[in-house]
Structures are given as C-alpha cells and as structure tokens.
Amino acid sequence: MPHTGTSEAKSGAPPSGALPASGGSFVRRDKLMRIEEDVQRLWDKTRPYEVDVCSLRRPRFVDSEPCNGSSVKNKFFCSFPYPYMNGLLHLGHGFTLCKAEFLARYYRLRGKNVLWPFALHCTGMPILACADRLKREIEAKKKEHELQEDKKEDQQEEGGSSDPTKFSSAKSKLVAKTGGLKSQWEIMAALGVPQDEIARFADANYWLDYFPPRCKKNLIRLGVAVDWRRSFITTDRNPFYSAFVRWQFMKLMLIMFLRICLCPLLPSPCGWLRLTLYVTMFIFFPCPCGISFSTFKILQAAGKISFGTRPTVISRRELQACADHDRLSGEGIGPQEYTLIKMRIKTEQMDASHAPHAEFKAAWEKHSSTNEGQSRQIFLVAATLRPETMYGQTNCYVLPEGDAPPLTPKPSKSTFSLADVSGFACMGRSALNMAYQASGGADELPTPHCLHRVSGQALLGLPLAAPLASYDTVFALPMQTISLEKGTGVVTSVPTDSPDDFTTLEYIRSKIEYFNKLYGIKEEWVLPFQPVEIIEVPGLGRQAAPTLCAQLGVSGPKDTQRLQQAKEEAYRRGFYEGVMTVGPFAGRKVQEAKALVREQLLQEGSACVYYEPEKKVVARSGDECVVGLLPQWFISYGEAEWRQQVEDYISGEDFSAFSPQAQHQFAFVLSWLKEWACSRSYGLGTFLPWTVNTDNPVLIESLSDSTIYMAYYTVAYLIQGGDMYGQSVGPLGLKPEDLTEAFFDYIFLLSDTPPEGSAVSVDNLNLLRSEFAYWYPLDLRVSGKDLIFNHLTFCLYCHTAVWPKQQELWPRAFACNGMVLVDSEKMSKSTGNFLTIEESIEKFSADATRIAFADAGDSLDDANFQRETANAAITRLYLLEGLVADFVAGKIELRDGPLSAADELFQNEIGLCVQSAAAAYEAMQNREALKAAFYELTIKRDQYKQLVGDEKMHRDMLRMWIEAQAITLCPIAPHICEYLWSCLLKKENLVVDAAWPQLTYDSALHREYGPLQQRVLSVLQRVPLVQGLQGQVEAPSDFMQIVKDAPELEDLDKNQKKEALAFASYQMRDELKACGRSALELRLPFSEKALLEAHRRFLEVSLELTCQLPQSFLVYTLEFRSSDDPSPLDSTNCRTLAKPGKPSIFFTSV
C-alpha cells in the first residue's frame, strides 16, 4: 500500500508506527502482523486454550480433587454476552470482550485453570427482518427492471446493468419510501459482502452460514485465548442448544415464574371459571398449549396460571413484540400508560356560519349512523397523566397545523367497548396505538379506519362536553407547542395547575383580535372562562401555576426555560403536597385522589386506558413501533419474593459489580423491572416447548434464551464436538433427542439420580456432570453497561430461579463498561471513525489494537479508543522485538560477574513493576496494568542503562527484564510476547503457560533522618494506627493533635514546630501508605547520602553534567550535603524542602 500525504488518522492514512521504509510497504506493522500469524499457527498446533476436566484432555490441575465439584477450586470461568450475528464485530465488542480476555490470560499466568468460551447469537427478529427487507428490495428491483425492458438498449449504451439483483449506489425510490434509511443492499455492501453474494442474504439461513465463521476468524486474529471447541450458535439450527433452552423454560414453568398471558383455549375473560373449566376440559381434550397433564397439574395446584393481555411495544410489520435487541433506536423504552379523556364534540351546538365547522359537521354526518341505525358520537380525545385535574378544565388545545383523522377502531369487547359506536378525533400516530390496543385476539391485529382527515385548524372553536369540568361547554383553542411525537395532538387545559395552559390562555386573551384574524377565534370561546380552583398547594395557594409564573417571571409561552422550571415545580409540589378542594375526593391528597378519579372516569365511560411508547421506537425492519395489547407469554420478573432473593444476593459478599455506580444501577433496575414478554411469532430461535406441536408454535425471544447459557458452555464441546452448528456427532456420540429434561437435571446438579432409561451411559453422564460441577459458577461476565437494564439482570433472576437453593452456582461478578468512542467521537461511518475489529487489525495489527483497548478506559464512563495510541504501540512493539533480537544475537555489549548496586536497584524496580501490574490486572484496571507492564518497565530499563553508564548492563539483569516484560505484557499483547519467549528466547514452554514472575520489591525508600525528624518519629510511634477499608494501616483522624500536644516538641521555636508538623503529616499520610509501619522507624536501612554517591554517574548523565564546554570556560560539579549542613553558596534556604528519600536540588554558578 503506497503512502501518500501525512499520517493523520482521520484521513485514513497508515499508522505512523507503520510508515514505509521503502517500496511502499509498512515495515513495522507488516512485521508485527507476520509475527502474529506465526504465533497463531503455533497456538493452533499446541491448543493451549483447550481445557477439560476429567475428560479427553486433562490440564495441569493444582486442585487435589478437580473432578468432585468441590467449592475449593483453582479455576477462573469468564464470559462475554454472545454478540448478534447480523454483521461484523466492531471496536465496541472488542473493547468489552478484552476485559475478560486480559483477566483470563493473567489468571493463567497465576496458575489458575481458565475457561474462556465464546458463542454467537442468532436468535430474534433482526436477521429475518433484514433478510425479508432485502428480499423485498430485490423483488422491487425486478419489477422496476420489467417496466424498463423497453429501455434496455439505451441502458446498455450507457453502460447500465440490466441484472435485477444488482443495485447501484444511488438511492432508489425504495430508499425514499423507507424514510431515508439506507437500503439493505447498501448496508450489506458496507459490511464488506461482495456484490455478487449479497442476493444470497435474502435467505435468513445464509446469515448464519456467513457471519459466525467470519467473526470467529477475526477473534482468532485478535488473539483471544478462547476454547473454540465450546463455541455454538443459537436458534433451532443448532438442535442441541435448542434442547437446552427448552429445558430452561420447562424449569421456569415448573418453578412458577412463567405465566400465561392469554390462553387460546378460553376466549372468555371470566377469571373465576378458568381453572375449573381448564381442568374439566383437559380430561377430555388435548391441551392446545401442548403441556403434559402432569406438568399442568403442578402448575394448576399452585394457582399460578393466569391469562389476559398486557401492553407491549410492537412492530406493526411483524405484528409482534419488539424487544430491545430488535430495535434500530429506542432501546430501553417501554409503554407509557395514559388516561384518555373523551371530550364529546357537541355537533348540535356547532356554529353553521363558521365554514370549518360546517365542513367538519357535513363530513361527520356521512358516518354518524351505525349499521344498527344508532347515532354515533364523536370525541376529541386527550391523553393525560393527571386525571385528577380534570375538574379544572376551561378549554382544550389543539395544534392548528396538525392533521386529525377521526378514527373508528374495529368493534371489540375490550376496554374500548364504546368505540364501536363512536369516533375519535386525534393524530394518526396515536390512532395506530389505539387500534392495536383494541385488538380482540392474537391473530386479529386491526388497522384503524380513518373516516375523514381534517386539519387541526378545523377543530378550533368546536364546542365540547369535558368530563368533570364545571363548565357545561368548553372550546378548542390553538397551542403552538403541542408535540407531534407524543400524545394525541389534543391537550386538556387546566390553567390553575399547568403553567403551559395558563400562559397560553393568557396570551390568547391578550391578543384576541390577532387570533380572531388568524384562526377565527371568538371572544365567547375565551373570555368567559376563568380558572377553576381545584387543588391547594402549601406555599402556592389554589392557583399554583399563576403563582409560580409570577414568582419566576415567566413572560409567555415562548419563555421556554422559565416555563420548564415552573412546570417541574408545579407538578412536583402539586402531586406530592397538594390537596383536592373539589369533587367527591375533596380533602384527600392528590397522590391518593389521582387513582380514585381515574377509576371514576373509566367506570363512567368518560375515559379509556391508552398506551404509547415513552419515546420513539424504530424496529430493525424500519417501521415506527406502537403499543399493542398482545396475547403472549411472559416471565414475571419483579415478583416480590423472587426480586427479594436477587436483591439480597447482589448486596451480599458473594457478588461484585466492581464499582458502586454499577451496583446502584443493578439495584435501580430491580426496583422497577416487571414482566418481560418472552414469546415471538416472527424471527429465528427456539420454540416454546409446550407450543411445538400446536397450530401456532411460539418462538422464545432473544433476551430470554440467553440468561443461563453459560452453563451450556461447560459441556458444549462434549455434546457438539466443536461444531458450532451442532450438526456433527460429538465425542460422546449424543443425539439431540438424548438431551431430555432428566438428562439436563442430572448434569446440572438439580438431581442426584441418573435418569432411568437414558440413551446416555452413566459414565458419560458423570463426565458431563463433572465438567459443570468444576467450572460453575461463572466467575466473571463482562458487558456494556446498557445490558444492566435487561440481560444482566435477567441472568441473575434466572440463575436464582433454576438453582434456587444452590447460591454457590449463581454468577460471582459482572464488570460493566461505557460505550466506546474513537478519538473522542462516537463511532459513525458517516464521519469515518467506525472501525470493525477486522479493519483495526489490518490497520494497526492485533497487538497494537489490544494495547489501544487496554488504554481506552476502565470505568462506567465512555471509553476512548485512540488511533494515536495504536500507532505509537506499533513502534514500541517493533523496537521491543528488535532489542530482544539483538540481545539473543549478542549485538548488545553486556557484562557478567557480581551484581553492582545499580543492578540490585534495577532488579528491585522490575519487582515493583511486576507487583503493580499484578494488582492492576486483578482490579481490572487495564490502563494501569499497561502502564506498569509496558511503559514503566521500558522507562526502568532506560534508566538502568543510564545508571550503569560505561560499565554496561548486566547480562542476567537484562534477561530478567526481558522475561518479566514478556510475561507481564502477555495478557495485553500476547503475540509479541509469545514470539519473544518461544521464538527468540527459545523457551521450552509457551509464554501463555509460564508462571508469573516471583520478584520481590523492597518498599523501604532510601532515606536518612535528621535529629528533628527522629524526635517527630518517636512521637508518631505512640499514635495508635487503624485498619483501612482495604486492610492497610492508616493514621487516625486526630493524629495531628497528638503531635501538637507531644512534650518532646514543646521547646521548638515557631519555624521548627512548623517543619515538624509538616514532616508528621507527610509521614502519616504519604509514607505510611507507601511503606506501611516501616515509615515510622527511627533509622533507615541505607544512608541516603551514600546511595547518591554510589549513583553519581547516573545523576551526572541524567542532569547532563558530563558535557563540558570548549576551552574549559565552564565546569559542572555535583555535590551532596545533609540538610543540616548548609552550603555557603545557597542563599535560598532550599535545603529545608528536602525530605527523606526526596532530596531538594539547588543550582548555582560561580
């Protein structure tokens, strides 16, 4: 690849560390990549990451009895949420999975048996949705092609293609019709799929053939220490994993955490009949759900079966629930429940002389009669969260420029039972939500029937009968700030308690002539309607909104900042402090009255229950989602006893979230998480076991088949034999039908009795059981913090459900991180900073990419992958390899013989780096680990080289440094370290199997105390030390008072006492932390002055005092003095700044 221009990362130029020496090749990067290929071949040959227990390959176990499932096990089992296979893995995946990768490699070096498996997720809607979208695009292209056959000659002359399965890069009409979204064809091309292969992705199965192997290949190139024999894909394409998922769901059913939301056997909503009828009919007829009679009896006896519908965010294209993983945007968004206030339009009072009203009335009269001859009513409907304020209505508001199609939902016997004889006027978006909430059955999801489309302006001035209002008639008025993205486009107006309503009404009052000319607003629609007091708020009176607007100086509807502040204050204080002053609930707190007023409105038929998404949600199929009332199965997360069990566990000592922020996030999610829809009718996956043999089998959704699959990792290679698709016979010769409920119960420790009549031998069952018993529980799961809100919490719930009395099998730790930025910007293809793992390896090499991952960050905040870091890593790794190669080849002048003081100091510093790296790895502080294991070790070597000067480095010390470097950096940059270890140093074993260096570090700094410091130390030795949170010794909070009151210091003058107190503070805060109790010893193990003299040469070189000027005009000298021995040349009193181990420096010229 030729290099042109600068190496600016954003321009797509090559890394600076890989700049070509000649011939247009990038020597440094290319050499690293060749090394990586050689090392990967070595690992592929030796298979160091394949670890078994009591099975076909036995690792070197430290445990005395590795197969007995003992709680004392020298093992580490980590995992990463299997990524979704609708594309290639990007830097976000790589950054998070490397959290587990670095720790797994570190624990291997510390002698642990490490299991680090990796599977690939294919369950859910996205793959099938993309395949179907591509299929539609191809069909549309074919039709377009057929219509343009007569232009074929012109196209050929212009060089155009007539192949209907080929797409140009320009946006087609199809793209325009999908709201500006990229076509699926273009997306596939952007993923690197060859043009002649894209059409094959119209078959969803081809996605499963294409992406999983390619992702695995890229991860192997990245160098992950994964046991790939345990890899698998999900969906029924893998019959073994499907059997596991079906077993899991039968466990949830039997433990009564799964409930029926709607059973197709009984359309009647009569709850008191359901159990009796179900059992009676079950005796004579097969169960439509496919549940065995014995299973049903267990469920029925517990009284845990119920049915009904529940509000769910759904995709209208797929006619099914759209969970987080099925969405293009809007993850974490759920249904918002409103009270839909029905304000009847008084058609009999409409002003016939007002042209918009006359037009509206004429249009309505065409549809105002039902088939039975009844007269329909029509309502303006407003969605509100504050039904208790309806007593204060003075008018309603509509958006003049909005469209409001009157809607007649399909007749049903649901909550909308009045809708079949009425019409609703509202925005089309809210009409869609209403229609799907009026559904009568799983196979009947109707679309709304638009009778007539009118503008919002035509609704202005309509006379309305508003429920609970003190005015018999109120009118519709204009409001410019109504959102088209929320609610129905109609807003009730309560000016006493809503600053928005108050300021808009006052604005219209003050400019009535303007609004009359603009919209035809009449005075009688506005002026007679004074605010109605309904709630008293302490400190704000009975007109909270006008009071707050006056206090905050709100100037009008456009004063958005102050208005927002007033709204928040009015709602908060009104809801929590307010007391009702009107209606049957007068005297009650607003908090109590809200539900009571709502129930009253619903019972009177003056309101309905209405749901819509909290914010906009777009499905991967491209359609905007709505909320529908769907019949479905769901897992009852949030059930009180179950939730308490999980809350108790995460707050105990057996679980770690690694940070208080993550711990609080888990607690927060547990506080609100409720039922989760786990069934789907569209997508890929595994069918619910009790629906398999029915006319309408139901799929398990993607966040529900992925909660305890870590257990399957432990036995996957014995069952599938390394075939991720489960199509081959594994080492034990098992078939999918052999994996029965009793089979899984036994191997996963839920039963102590081998299943009778099993096709699997007892020996093989025990082999599988031993694998699970040894490796479980999961020691670490790494993830992005977004999965706290679903997957990670589900994982905790389901482990406690499947193993309710075996807490020792529940997950031990979850480590979460933020999103990944690239050069401090969000990853985006449009800005050119979106990188897949494959692209990053090609650009920087695998080890340089991994170093940039380690440096990117370690907290819940967003991490920052920097190209500059990856670029610099190329150079550093290249130079490291060159240094070791020169050492092995004898090209570096070295000495042998006894060790000098400089050698011993260097050895001590290597030990410090090794200890620092170990502590950082164990705390998952990878940036600190990289600093200690790479950057600081390099600095120590350079300083050592300076320190010895002309004496040369010691051969043994440099070898020690190289070996320490190879081992401590191995978790982060394993390829180069393996090459140094195995290929250059010619070690017999692999570096990935090496032992962590056992080097010591003497933490006592080289200090020397004077008389004053010794007096202070004698006082400090009497101070009672306390134990800190991490077990270290600390000074008590009152230690300075003890020093001040010490009789030994009473004779000191003001300056001496000031110096003594400063020294005491330094020793008890800094030195005690660094050195422990040795910081308080009266004498030090070394003479600081003697130490400096021993390393005079190093200091002269470091301070550049060795280069004398010509003609000897200037000669540099270096002198060491005690702080008690002032120099006659020092007039600055600089010596008083010196502290033990931290000398001060004074420069002078004569």
Walk me through the topology.
Blueprint: H1 27-46, E1 75-79, H2 91-109, E2 113-115, H3 126-147, H4 152-157, H5 173-177, H6 184-190, H7 195-198, H8 204-222, H9 239-254, E3 258-260, H10 271-284, H11 293-302, E4 310-315, E5 320-321, E6 327-329, E7 335-345, H12 355-365, E8 377-384, E9 395-398, E10 403-404, E11 406-408, E12 422-425, H13 428-437, E13 449-450, E14 454-455, E15 463-465, E16 474-478, E17 490-493, H14 499-510, H15 512-519, E18 535-536, H16 544-552, H17 560-577, E19 579-580, H18 590-604, E20 607-613, E21 618-619, E22 626-630, E23 633-635, H19 640-650, H20 660-672, E24 676-677, E25 679-680, E26 699-700, H21 710-720, H22 741-747, H23 762-775, E27 780-784, H24 791-802, E28 814-817, E29 820-822, E30 825-826, H25 837-844, H26 846-855, E31 863-865, H27 867-889, E32 894-895, H28 901-922, H29 926-948, E33 953-954, H30 955-969, H31 974-984, H32 1011-1020, E34 1026-1027, E35 1033-1034, H33 1039-1044, H34 1054-1075, H35 1088-1094, H36 1096-1102
Parallel strand pairs: 1-2, 1-27, 8-12, 9-16, 27-28, 29-31, 32-33
Antiparallel strand pairs: 3-23, 4-5, 4-22, 6-21, 7-8, 7-15, 7-20, 9-17, 10-14, 11-12, 11-13, 15-16, 18-19, 23-24, 25-26, 29-30, 34-35
Helix pairs in contact: 1-27, 1-31, 14-16, 16-17, 19-20, 19-24, 21-23, 25-26, 26-27, 27-31, 28-29, 28-30, 29-30, 29-36, 30-31, 32-34
